[in-house]
Amino acid sequence: MHHDDADGGSSAQWVADPLPRLEWQPNAGNGFRSAHQRYLSLGFDDLEASAWLHFESVALALQSVVNRGLLQQHKLSLADVQLLSHLKSSGPSQMGTLADMLMVTPSALTQQIQRLERRRLARRETSSADGRRVLAMITREGDRLIAAALETYSRLVRAHFLDELSRRQMIALGDGCRRISVRLKAAEVAPDAPDSQRNRG
To answer: What ranges make up the beta strands (E) of the chain?
Structure first.
């Protein structure tokens, strides 16, 4: 079946998935059953409730297992790895830009940078071009540690995510996430616009 994208494009030809679709079953655990019923009470149908419940639980579980592995191996949180990785690839960055990218408050980012500074993994400097701006940057020690941490990150993502999916499933999942991302970005640009205007394009 040909699948048209929400943003007007098309990306793949889908065929039936030979694997059974995971849905709520009567003998599911009490926690799963109660959550499923809660979503039904919100107006979701069985398929919608199952899709959201599985996505929500898997997203939280994946973040937890990756975060735990990074802490055990490198004493870095997933947020620390995301921050240091950005500084390594993009160079000195404004604190405000980093806060937006990591979706955290400026105060939370300041506390995170301070923790990394105490470990000599990052530092801050006033911008030479604009004294009102503060730039965060990675140190040599941070550069060495993030290289090892990214190897661990890659291994964890592959073991707990990629290895569980076929190539076709990766394409389908990526396409679905991209479509959702387009909608979310449009909502950020025009948060007060009517839904009819947000869906254009």
So the answer is: 2-4, 10-13, 93-94, 122-126, 134-138
Q: What is the pTM of this model?
A: 0.73
Per residue in 107-163, pLDDT (tens digit) is 999 999 999 999 999 999 998 877 788 999 999 999 999 999 999 999 999 999 999
- Between CA 144 and CA 133 the distance in angstroms is 27
Q: Which residues contact 66 (CB under 8 A, 6 or more apart)?
A: 78, 153, 156, 157, 160
Q: Check the CA dihedral 12-184-158-89 and report its sign.
A: positive
Among 118, 98, 94, residue whose Cα is nearest residue 108 = 98
Contact 134, 94 (CB under 8 A): yes
Phi, psi angles (nearest 5°) of residue 160: -105, -5
Q: For residue 107, what are the contacts with CB-CB under 8 A and spacing of at least 6? A: none
